[in-house]
Amino acid sequence: MLTITEQVLRTVFNHIYAQGVMLEGAILKPNMVIPGLICPKQVSVEEVADATIQCLRQSVPAAIGGIAFLSGGRSGKLASAHLNAMHVRHELKLPWPLTFSFARAIQQPAMEIWDGKDKNIKAAQQALFHRARCDQKARMGLYNASMEMVEAMAI
């Protein structure tokens, strides 16, 4: 049985082919294959990575220029863990680069710290820099949860 994401991607690419879009110049911005936020049964980071890569490999042409994931409302920490797991578990099977396209997961911690107050600017900037650094590591399959502990002590 096809996942909803796979069905949507196949439909999208059927239309893209019909329009003659140059795949090498396109960046796909999909969701990860993940249970909804209110789903009572959540799955492991590894299961999300495996399901997402399986879906993409079955429905996204290898020629696509890259894949930049949306957050789906996940926290920055969880989003980093998901992308990292995709690289760690599937790097040799990836025909396209994978990265982030979700401002909310990257910016939300800094926005909450800042809270519109000048006195919080430095701490918010540090939080944004930390999240970007974690995401960079996740992009290379080098992220781990201990990086979050270092950040908590720094702020």
Note down, in words, how this protein is organized.
The chain has 155 residues and is mainly alpha-helical. It has one domain: TIM Barrel. It has 6 helices and 3 strands. It has a 3-stranded parallel β-sheet, with no helix packed on it. The mean pLDDT is 89.
Shape: globular
Average pLDDT number: 89
What is the number of strand segments? 3
What is the percent of helical residues?
Answer: 55-70%
Largest sheet: 3 strands, parallel
> What count of structural domains?
1
How would you write the strand order of the largest sheet? 1-2-3
User: What series of H and E elements makes up the topology?
Assistant: HEHEHEHHH
- Going by CATH, the homologous superfamily would be Aldolase class I
Return Rg in Å.
17 Å
The assigned CATH architecture is: Alpha-Beta Barrel
Class computed from helices, strands and strand pairing: mainly alpha
Distance between the termini: 46 Å
Topology:
Elements: H1 4-19, E1 27-28, H2 45-59, E2 66-69, H3 76-90, E3 98-100, H4 103-114, H5 121-139, H6 146-154
Parallel strand pairs: 1-2, 2-3
Features:
155 residues; mainly alpha; TIM Barrel; 3-stranded parallel β-sheet; 3 strands; globular
Compact summary:
The protein has six helices and three strands, in the order αβαβαβααα.
